[in-house]
Amino acid sequence: MKDTEGADAGTGAELTARFATEVDWTKVVDPYIPGPDGRYGPDLLERLWSPDLRTADDAHAALHFACCGDGGSVRLAAPEVLPFLVEAVRDPAVAVMMRKQILETLAVLARAGNDARTAPAAWPAAWERAVDALLPLLADDEEGDEGVRAGVAAVLARATHRADELIGRFLARFEDESHLSAAEQLVLAVGELAPHAVERREDAFVWLRQRTTDAGKGEEPDMDDDIDAWLAWMEQHGHDVRTAAVVALRRALRPL
Prior knowledge:
Blueprint lengths: L12 H9 L21 H6 L4 H16 L8 H14 L5 H20 L7 H12 L11 H11 L6 H14 L3 H14 L7 H11 L15 H9 L6 H11 L4
């Protein structure tokens, strides 16, 4: 078994126990190291929660390759550890940088799951549960990070079978999103889902076209010249996402 000792894990006893009982570790292996040396155990997930970023990063890299190899497949490990990857994204105790990296892996897995001719039989149900678990993070304003919200939108954009539902959620969230980077990703996500929608398809295209000409709340007023105008401007959430909307429309209009 691969050496995963030395973890300074930040997990509780209950979560650590779940790592051992809810994952079939015979399926979580390094695709590039055959035999016992390429096998992992529950301590790999413990390391993902480590407060030491290098330890957590090494664990994430190992999980990434175990789940999707070079990024073009969904391996047997993916349905096994996916619930815990999502749980790490949802846990504020996990460093924001790590949560963003895990979301990148989830996006790769989701893309591979959509494109691959074959995937583990357990993958569709695991992916469906992951989508449901990630949805609340779209509106995680108080303790959330805009980069995490953007990453969640990018992952959910791969749930093409739920395009109508997600487009509605993204449009609603855009109105309340206070950070430009997350707002831009919501626009890009609508563009990814629009071609797959049925009921919301035309709504999505109309909305994207509107965003291509909408400058949002405009240029920031000079605080020294008019403090009231500046305060009013700061309270608005209107973003200039015209560039992102153009990109999203181009992607949406590509042949499937």
